[in-house]
């Protein structure tokens, strides 16, 4: 798999967005507590790592359905670590 570049504003932790993001806002619609928008770059970044199972489900849904595959996770991105 090609390594994509992580956007600088992602908070440290498991999930992050990459520069493939085009700001479509889908992720923030399914996980509004976890993704935030940066206007200058027109990208979304992980503003808060999931703090509950419910939030993690939302982030995983965003990750699976992101049209540009711009949400990545360290590890396998599933399951609890
Ligand atoms: S769903 Fe993907 S492409 Fe759309 S804003 Fe979120 S990270 Fe970016």
What would you say this structure looks like, in words?
By secondary structure, this protein is α+β, with helices and mostly antiparallel strands. It has a single domain, classed as 2-Layer Sandwich (Alpha-Beta Plaits), CATH 3.30.70. Helices cover 22% and strands 17% of the residues. The chain is built from 2 helices and 4 strands. The chain has a two-stranded antiparallel sheet. A hairpin with a 4-residue loop joins β2 and β3. The longest helix is centred in the last third of the chain and has 13 residues. It is globular, with a radius of gyration of 11 Å. 26% of the residues are buried. The protein binds iron/sulfur cluster (SF4).
The residue fraction in helices comes out at 10-25%
Span from first to last CA? Answer: 22 Å
Q: Which overall shape is indicated by the principal axes computed on the Cα atoms?
A: globular
Q: And the CATH topology?
A: Alpha-Beta Plaits
CATH architecture: 2-Layer Sandwich
State the total count of DSSP E strands: 4
What assembly state would you assign to the polypeptide chains in this entry? single chain
Taken together, the total number of domains comes to 1
Number of helices in the DSSP assignment: 2
Bound heterogens, unique: iron/sulfur cluster
CATH class: Alpha Beta
Mean pLDDT: 92
